[in-house]
Amino acid sequence: MSLKSIINFNEKTKDSHYSVSDDVWTILSVEDDVNYQKSIELSLDGLEVDGKGIEVLTANSAVEAAAVLSSVSDISVILLDVVMESDDAGLRVVDTIRNVIGDDNVRIVLVTGQPGVNAPRQSLMKQYDIDDYWTKTDLTEEKLRSVVISNIRTWHSLSELNRAKRGLQMIVDASRVITSKLDVEGFSKTVLQEVGKIVGVPHSGGIACLVSSELQPLETNEVVAATGSFSLSRMKVLQDLLSCDSHPISIEKMTKLLNTARDEKRHIFGKELSVLYFSTKDIDRRSYLMLVESPNSLNEQHVALLRVFCENVKTGFANLALLNKLSKLAYYDSELNIPNRNWLVREITQSNDFMLANLDMVIINIANFSEATVMLGSSHTELMVRARYENIRAHYKHAKEICRISHNQLAILFSRINTPSEDELKSLTEQSINVDGINHTVVATVCVAELKSIIGYSASDMITLVEMALIDGLERGKAVVKYSPSFTSDIAVRHEILQDLYSALRMEDAFNIALQPKVNMCSGELVGAEALLRWTKPDGSVVPPSLFIPIAEASGIMNKIDSMVMEKTINTIKRLCSIGINMPISFNVTCSDITTTDFIEKLVGLLSASGIEPSLLEVEITESQAMEDYEEVNPVLQKLLSMGVKVSVDDFGTGYSSLAHIADLAVSTLKVDKSFVSKLSNDKCSEAGLAVCEMVFRLANRFNFNIIAEGVETEEEKEKLIECGYEFAQGYLFAKPMPIEDFEALCKKSA
What we know:
The protein is α/β, with parallel strands linked by helices. The protein has four domains: 3-161, Rossmann fold (3-Layer(aba) Sandwich); 166-327, GAF domain (Beta-Lactamase, 2-Layer Sandwich); 341-491, Reverse transcriptase/Diguanylate cyclase domain (Alpha-Beta Plaits, 2-Layer Sandwich), CATH 3.30.70; 508-750, Alpha-Beta Barrel (TIM Barrel), CATH 3.20.20.450. Helices cover 48% and strands 21% of the residues. The strands form four sheets. It has an eight-stranded mixed β-barrel with strand order 17-18-20-21-22-23-24-25, surrounded by four helices. Strands 2-3-1-4-5-6 form a six-stranded mixed beta sheet, sandwiched between helices. Strands 11, 12, 13, 14, 15 and 16 form a six-stranded mixed beta sheet that branches. A hairpin with a 5-residue loop joins strand 18 and strand 19 (542-543). Helix 7 (163-178) packs across helix 12 (300-329).
């Protein structure tokens, strides 16, 4: 069983091979939140840049990203999550791209799902050559498309300028992949063929590569690879090549150039014959001479390319040696010299079900790791992790193994009989450690899982499931989390809803709005309505907003839903006006969408196209959103009011209001939250509810706001609100949300 099987996305199985077309721009999205990953693919669907479409490759972790980067060339833009399997996994991927792979062209756009986290320091962005930085809530579909288009064009320009150099690097990389050993013949021949294409050596010319040694005569130097006119049978050493009379170049000239290049250890470029010299003596005590014969003179660009080629050949040999070293380190963390994630995956994979049934895994997630790295430096945080590891090793000698599975996460394997108790695990959540003579309190979240409860999943998925349970516990404020098998079923349900939501957004009739009347409690007169979104699945079942709205917000597609509700609300107002019902209708919008530039633009466009009076439209935003993002939100609300659009603060009384902000808040109406209204008919808390309702009423009068009570369900609540001075309300006592046809009938009846 795989983790993807419980998510049930109909997507291609990821493997180590990726195939992309030359007719598209290739984008790589590195994102561990598969929900947001899907929203990126949806947003970029159908986008064309300069006549070419977009091919979106995806990776869900830094490890998967490395696999894609090693398999695919010409990736133009990388959309990279800052926080994945570790808080700084994104920066590690950037470091790999810039410093290990050496790709300075690809455009890197960092994204984060933590709106409260400041962008990386300018020095950090400069250090890693990061091109852009966005929070997921700000990266709307339009903004995402704009960012991708501009970065594709930047990449294309840079690529054109550096195509030759990058081409040679790709040649060396391709040659390195051909063999894991120092196969000089295969390596050299591949490179010679590509160089012949780049510098334009015609069929009448050729290239030969010699292994040179100062201790032997030049004529006996081995010919390890040859192409074109030099590629003749029985050509083993230079003497064979010199004795061949099929070349227009004289033997004397060839010999002189080769001797000069070898003795002076330099390249010699000529009109008919050039000799390249390069040395790898620091690796294998060899030097190489390359004869390039061409009837066409080499221009400056060719010479520059050949110089780069010489350096890349040396780099290729160095990389081979480096790969051998890296293979030894593949299963161990280079900093702590302890098993890493790859080791843990291998260990679990090689364990049978009986062994796994007797193992427990504890994952420790060190909090605020990325912030500490930015503030104190990576060397300091590495010392913190080392001190934490040594502390654990000293106290849990019976642990089977301690692994570092990410920069800020340690995983410990215990035999069932030795697994620490919950109280012992609590001691791991807060420990004092000493770094450079300074005592630090390191806070962490801990998750423990019985591996027998997840037998059947792949080793990688088992680790991921425990990490997901840890993150879920972290979001719920729990320091110690115990993995439960029900967690996977919860994931399955949420992802099934999200999958259905993606499909519904492509359908015309999946969503509609219901209207809940707003009334004058004293006269019973209808004074307006609130538009509420309803989602009906193809089988006729209705998905409540309380279930799919949080999932939509978490997946980054709430802007599509907000936009759809806005359009449907304006169309509803237009329809009502056409039959003589001039009734103001409100709709809800999230803070992340109302602050985008395209929100106002689209609203103005829809109002203009519909011809309705702006005063018939009312925008509702929750109090907590309005106050938390006051500096950004309030100017937008002021713009709406100046257009004639009304603005309501929904759920008032439950957020984080301050009198200073309330005084300047650009709204027309306060909506008292139903949680306070419901207290009016509860004997135990009636006085408290009444006190809040009276306070909000006085506040509204003080600052000249209209006021409406929501969630009124009983006559008692209605009467007490009227006694407090309230005039307008909405709730089940008066009417439930209804289709527009029923609302039209109700308006005609009330008239």
